[in-house]
Amino acid sequence: MSQQQFSQAVFSKIIANKPNDNVVISPYSIFIALLMTAAGAKSDTLQEMLSALCVQDQNKQNADVPLVLEKIASTKSVSSANAIFASKDINLLEEYKKVVSEQFKSEIEQKEYYFSDSTKSTNEVNDWVKDKTQGLIKSIVDNIDPKTALILVNAIYFKASWEKQFDKSLTKRSDFRLIGNSEKINVEMMFKYNKKVLYGENDNTKWVRLPYVGGELNSIFILPKSDDCSSSSLQETCEFVLSCLGEGNLSSKLRTSDVELTTLQIPRHKVEYEEDLVPVMKQLGMIKAFGSADLSGIGEGPADLSISKIVHKAVVMVDEQGTEAAAVTAVAVTLACFVNKPVYNFICDRPFLHVIEHSETGTVLFMAKVMKPDSKEK
């Protein structure tokens, strides 16, 4: 599945650039925003974008988008919205408007003051973002350049309760060990004792799959099997998860069975992240879109169009009741210039990975690498 392969590609580049930082992204949001942009790309620009997105058949991928959107929306826990804010200087092509409105269900806004009135335009885009993410993300653009031709935005909001919630009375302050085991921080740690949990492991990695109400959405928490808290152990775990995504079969690789855990321990936390995706996408081979681009399938204007910015923000909050998360991606286009019963534990007291996925479609909604959790107070 191209979306899982893209998740692997973009997440691997970001965590390689930020080895010691918390990272959380929505591969889904980035994928949709760029796919919507690619719908107006042509020639080499299009080929580079599709290659970076791991898409082999653009028509099929675009046709699949509304089906995936519908399945994800049917969970009632996920809402996703797309919008295009376009300058009056751009004559959007009817074919492009048809594709983005029918297949991507995108709103299209085109007003006289886009984007000559920078303050008013900026506030309007950010108000849309705040509304679609239920206030979790308050802004995505800052002082929009009046030369901007259009801004394409995807927003995703997620809120779901655990199928089996954590008992809040068991939550207590506990140590979380940082990489190298040389330092500890104190966090609010959630506990379950002697409970059956969907658990899996291999020689180097272990994971638990915690379903949300309805069973269509899951969180997967992933730890190195080694307790040494070393960067090499975490790297090995990251490489394993990324290889599963690269093969497009995360769920089948991370198989689980119902196992009674003596202790399940996960920090209550909030992770936020912001990334300028232009360098990342260039690393993935998307070059022409930022310079001598052919985005003529979007519309006609006084000059050629090219991408100037790709901004991504994401936040994930985990507590005893469930998970709340949101992400926004904005693409700014400007005028160029068993034998014996073993004892199983899953103790997240050291850096870990976190994936939120939609089971049926395999869509990766959020991915996080948590190095130093910010404990979320209720």
Automatic annotation (TrEMBL):
Q: Which residues form the Serpin domain?
A: 8-373
Q: Which InterPro entries does UniProt cross-reference here?
A: Serpin_dom, Serpin_fam, Serpin_sf, Serpin_sf_1, Serpin_sf_2
A GO term, aspect molecular function: serine-type endopeptidase inhibitor activity
Cited Gene3D superfamilies: Alpha-1-antitrypsin, domain 1 (2.30.39.10), Antithrombin, subunit I, domain 2 (3.30.497.10)
A cellular component annotation (GO) from this entry: extracellular space
Transmembrane stretches in the record are none
Superkingdom, natural source: Eukaryota
Which CDD domains does the entry link to? serpin (cd00172)
Similarity section:
Belongs to the serpin family.
Q: Which PANTHER family does the UniProt entry name for this protein? A: GH10112P-RELATED, SERINE PROTEASE INHIBITOR, SERPIN
Its protein name is: Serpin
Q: Which organism is it from?
A: Acrasis kona
